[in-house]
Design a protein that fits this description.
The complex is a heterotrimer. Chain A has a single domain, classed as MetI-like fold, CATH 1.10.3720. Helices cover 73% and strands 0% of the residues of chain A. By secondary structure, chain B is of the alpha/beta class. Chain B has a domain of 94 residues. A seven-stranded mixed beta sheet of chain B has the order 6-7-8-3-9-10-12, sandwiched between helices. In chain B, helix 3 packs across helix 4. The longest helix of chain B has 18 residues. Chain C is α/β, with parallel strands linked by helices. Chain C has a domain of 71 residues. Chain C is built from eleven helices and twelve strands. Classes of the chains: A mainly alpha, B alpha/beta, C alpha/beta. Chains in contact: A-B, A-C, B-C. Chain A: It is found in: Cell membrane. Chain A: One of its GO terms (biological process) is transmembrane transport. Chain A: InterPro entries: BP-dependent_transpt_permease (IPR050366), MetI-like (IPR000515), MetI-like_sf (IPR035906), OppC_N (IPR025966). Chain A: This is Peptide ABC transporter permease.
Chain lengths: 303, 340, 336
């Protein structure tokens, strides 16, 4: 049983009004559960960190030879690293690379995967078979070994480069899933009606199918970000890619292998800081994902 | 306006390793729907009436036969050139909720086809808004109330009217209503049926009404023709009122006998025809398709299949009652009023 | 088969069921009182928003949150007030004493198990001692309904047709020898001929087993073929109740009159039939004061705005309407 609360609407509802109502609806959905707000705050916090973090510190972070692996104190909240640099500063300045890579990966994965999945699912027939074979190929590529091999010749200095490679490796899953969603949606009455009316294919895909799949795509994008973060952190942890002192994965690597963080307590904060950052970021994203379904479904949004 | 001859369609089902199963959906069906006319297809689920309706609306292919629209045979055109013809025939689905995009307002839903229409007929963008309101008025709902809303905010009856309005955006010549009132509350059904009747009168649109509820077929208007379809074959055909009052084929009679009687208001018809149940799936394709269930079948019925025709031998006129039975007999099966 | 005593009477008194919504707790069923005479089939007819399905669930005390039973009682002879039963007692009542045939029984069978296995599950969960006898009873019931018992029990849900699945649903509701049976929309999604067969089966089984049966439906025709008494529901209330031939022949409530007038019929002048104006109510649009039907009523009076009509019973007929003073037959001029 549901009660529909019908908001004040007049006949002359323009696009602008609809957009305004949309964002108001988004706000309402986020307010419904405090956990979602917490997620938004966390993610926004990291976004801010990524944007202005490096601006708060000098280009070369100060070293302090007298305070190597110093324990946490008011001056160094998480202690210092092997060079005496403040760990918190390292985490904050390292956020930009991680987030940019994550974003780049997510955008490429979802854009490519959705486009291929939609096209294959809608057209079916030969296009479908061809594109799905391509997808199978992509899924079969062993990502990790390939990256390891690539890293010997290509130094991924720019986060976009890293994001590009990870994105190109990972769109297969999204394509498959979007294709099956498309296959089921295309039998729905309103899609058939649109075809019967003679509406062009690009309208049907772009204006009818895509908005119906919006929650799914949004969720995929957010989860792709977390996946990308893990992937790159993992790679850097393995020591595969260039050393950049403030890269979270590198920090983990140094903490465990050089600092002996798993055996002695001295380097423990050095290990925990990036770890906590990763966990917090993932948590924030997961909390927001919860709201995606309600945001894009007008019925749930208005309720 | 549209005629079909010997339309056949077989569905291939995914079988097992031993072979695919073929399910004949339509077995050489003929039909003719005149301009501004009202035709109803009656039958149980699986009889092929929906398939035929979708073929007529251009949403389904057929294996053999000929369809002629406004004098032009479709077989002489490429797939692309057929589209303008089929666009004149619009289908209205059974479920009004799934027929509307839940993420778009009614205004957005109507805007897309209207823009297309405006481009086709060389009209301005402003015309779209005016036309949207006109169409909603035509189907009997308040544009101010409906346009800014999402489908889930409207009742089932209103949704179905919006669907009809959308079908009208392309100025169709025929509406195919596939079980269009089955999912609507009983007290509102006559409203939709009346609307279809109204549209016939005001716009000259022909209506193809597909249903399993024969009584509703009467309400799409005067001079309607009824086709009774059983397992892909038309077994009886003729003017709606004649067939209902004076059915001749045992299957039609059993359908009409099955209609519940409102005791206190009606009494049952003089005779009742109750077919035996066909419970196993392996129904034979030999002879008359209804012979296994028909209480009157004879040996001839099981070996020979009757062809749709008139006792006099001629077929094809809308005012003539046709049947496919070796021993048709008029039986009075429908409930009679008790009187006030 | 042993059976204790005759068919039980079911008394529903002042039942109110509310649902929690953002706008507060709204009533889906409001002060409904209904008596099911032992051994009869009572039909409850209503459209969306009438509360009939909620009423059916209440007979099993199966209303789930966000709904809850706010007031009233459902007494069944030999069981007491079902609404006061809980836990194990309630679980045992469902199935053994009160049989329920779900709406679209087609979809409520487990698609992964055969019918026979589900029958055994049912028996085991109700501590049936002799499962073999249960299966034999089930086969006998299915045969009684015209099916090959052994074959059906070995089949999965998708191997059976709609009519067969509905019969399986009925069998599962009866096999534990329940004496009160509730059927929720037993003929939706069935073809006309299958519908007629199922209705006949319901009638025959009901008589053979001396049950008290409740049939919930939106289809007046279906209920007319099978029921002895008819109760018409609108907006969570029973607006009319009585022997079926009388309610249909001389309806007293404007909703009943309008509903009958709105049914497409096979004979008569089609221009005399009329749809009811307006729309059926939803939980949120139901008026809180006055008569719930007044927006669509052609006999609307001043008093209808503020005072909810009382349910008046006389002459075996119950009506809740300010305008229903005395019986007035529906003008069925369209019939010859």
């Amino acid at each position: 049983m549901t009660v529909t609360v019908i908001p004040e609407m007049t006949a002359g509802t323009t696009r602008a009004t609809l957009r305004r109502n949309f964002w108001r609806g988004v706000w309402r959905v986020l307010c419904r559960k405090p956990s979602r707000m917490a997620g938004v705050v966390i993610v926004l916090g990291f976004a801010v960190m990524g944007v202005i973090g490096p601006l708060l510190y000098p280009a070369n972070l100060p070293r302090d030879d007298n305070a190597l692996y110093a324990p946490p104190s008011l001056q160094h909240l998480f202690g210092t690293d092997f060079e005496g640099t403040d760990v918190l500063a390292l985490v904050i300045t390292g956020a930009r690379y991680v987030l940019l890579t994550g974003l780049a990966t997510a955008v490429i994965t979802v854009a490519l995967g959705t486009a291929i999945g939609l096209f294959a699912g809608f057209r079916r027939g030969r296009w479908d078979s061809a594109l799905m074979r391509l997808t199978d190929l992509n899924l079969a590529i062993p990502g990790l070994p390939l990256l390891l091999v690539l890293s010997t010749v290509w130094k991924f200095t720019s986060p976009i480069e890293m994001g590009l490679v990870l994105g190109l490796l990972g769109w297969g899953g999204v394509a498959r899933a979007v294709r099956s969603q498309t296959l089921s949606l295309r039998e729905r009455g309103f899609i058939e009606a649109a075809r019967g009316l003679g509406l062009p294919t690009r309208h049907i895909i772009g204006r009818e199918l895509l908005p119906s799949m919006a929650p799914y795509i949004a969720m995929n994008m957010l989860i792709a970000v977390t996946g990308a973060v893990y992937a790159q952190v993992g790679l850097f942890f393995l020591g595969v890619l260039p050393f950049d002192a403030n890269n979270w994965g590198v920090m983990l690597n140094l903490a465990v292998f050089s600092g002996g963080a798993l055996t002695t307590p001295a380097a423990l904060p050095y290990l925990l800081a990036p770890l906590l950052a990763i966990l917090l970021l993932t948590l924030g994203i997961v909390l927001i994902v919860d709201a995606m379904d309600e945001i894009f479904n007008p019925r749930l949004r208005e309720e | 306006m549209i005629t079909g001859t010997a339309i056949t369609k077989t569905f291939k089902q995914r079988g097992n390793v031993l072979g695919k199963r073929e399910v004949p959906a339509l077995r050489g069906v003929d039909f003719a729907i005149p301009k501004g006319g009202a035709v109803s297809f009656i039958g149980e689920s699986g009889c092929g009436k929906t398939t035929l309706g979708r073929i007529i609306a251009g949403l389904e292919t057929y294996d053999s036969g000929e369809i002629v629209i406004d004098g032009t045979p479709m077989s002489s055109l490429t797939h692309r050139n057929r589209q303008p013809y089929y666009r004149r025939i619009q289908l209205i689905h059974q479920d009004p909720y799934s027929a509307l995009n839940p993420t778009r307002t009614i205004h957005q839903t109507l805007e897309a086809p209207l823009r297309l229409r405006a481009r086709q007929t060389g009209r301005s963008k402003g015309w779209c808004d005016v036309r949207a309101e006109e169409l909603l008025d035509l189907v009997g709902i308040d544009p101010g109330y409906v346009l800014p809303r999402y489908p889930h905010q409207l009742s089932g009856g209103m949704r179905q009217r919006v669907v009809i309005a959308r079908a009208l955006t392309m100025d169709p010549e025929m509406l195919v209503a596939d079980e269009a009132v089955s999912m609507i509350d009983v007290s509102l059904r006559l409203g939709i049926l009346g609307l279809l009747r109204d549209l016939r009168e005001r716009l000259g649109v022909s209506v193809l009404f597909i249903t399993h509820d024969i009584a509703t077929a009467r309400y799409v208007g005067d001079e309607g023709e009824l086709y009774v379809i059983y397992r892909g074959q038309v077994v009886e055909r003729g003017p709606t009122e004649t067939i209902i009052a004076d059915p001749v084929h045992p299957y039609t009679q059993s359908l009409l006998s099955a209609i519940p009687v409102l005791h206190g208001l009606e009494r049952p018809g003089a005779e009742q025809v109750v077919p035996t149940e066909a419970l196993d799936e392996g129904q034979t394709d030999e002879g008359c398709l209804f012979s296994r269930r028909c209480p009157f079948s004879t040996a001839r019925c099981e070996s020979e299949r009757p062809v749709l025709g008139h006792d006099g031998g001629e077929s094809g006129e809308a005012t003539v009652q046709l049947h496919a039975c070796f021993h048709p007999r008029r039986r009075s099966v429908i409930p009679q009023g008790v009187g006030a | 088969m042993t059976r204790d005593s005759a068919a039980p009477e079911v008394r529903i008194r002042d039942l109110t069921v509310v649902y929690k919504t953002p706008a507060g707790e709204l009533p889906a069923v409001s002060g409904v009182s209904l008596t099911l005479t032992p051994g009869t089939i009572t039909g409850v007819v209503g459209e969306s928003g009438s509360g009939k399905s909620t009423l059916a669930l209440s007979l099993l005390n199966a209303v789930q949150p966000p709904g809850r039973i706010a007031a009233g009682s459902v007494e069944i002879d030999g069981l007491g007030d079902v609404l006061h039963l809980g836990g194990e007692d309630l679980r045992r009542t469902r199935g053994r004493k009160v049989g329920y045939v779900f709406q679209a029984a087609q979809s409520s069978l487990n698609p992964l198990k055969t019918v026979g296995k589900q029958l055994l599950d049912l028996g085991r969960s109700h501590d049936v001692a002799d499962l073999r006898a249960l299966v034999a009873d089930a086969k006998a019931l299915l045969a009684r309904m015209g099916l090959d018992g052994a074959r059906v029990l070995d089949s999965h849900q998708h191997e059976l047709s709609g009519g067969m699945r509905q019969r399986v649903g009925i069998m599962l509701a009866l096999v534990l020898n329940a004496q009160v049976v509730v059927l929720d929309e037993p003929t939706t999604a069935l073809d006309m001929i299958t519908q007629a067969t199922i209705l006949r089966i319901i009638r025959e089984v009901h008589e053979e087993r001396a049950l008290t049966t409740l049939v919930i439906t939106h289809d007046v025709g279906a209920v007319a073929e099978v029921a002895d008494d008819l109760a018409v529901m609108y907006g969570g209330r029973v607006v009319e109740h009585g022997p079926i031939a009388e309610v249909l022949g001389t309806p007293r409530h404007p909703y009943t009159q309008g509903l009958i007038r709105a049914i497409p019929r096979l004979s008569g002048d089609i221009s005399l039939a009329r749809a009811l104006p307006g729309r059926p109510p939803t939980l949120g649009t139901l008026p809180v004061v006055g008569c719930v039907f007044r927006e669509r009523c052609d006999k609307r009076m001043e008093i209808c705005e503020t005072v909810e009509p009382e349910t008046v019973t006389y002459d075996g007929r119950t009506v809740a309407c300010h305008a229903a003073g005395r019986p007035a037959p529906v003008k069925r001029r369209e019939y010859a």
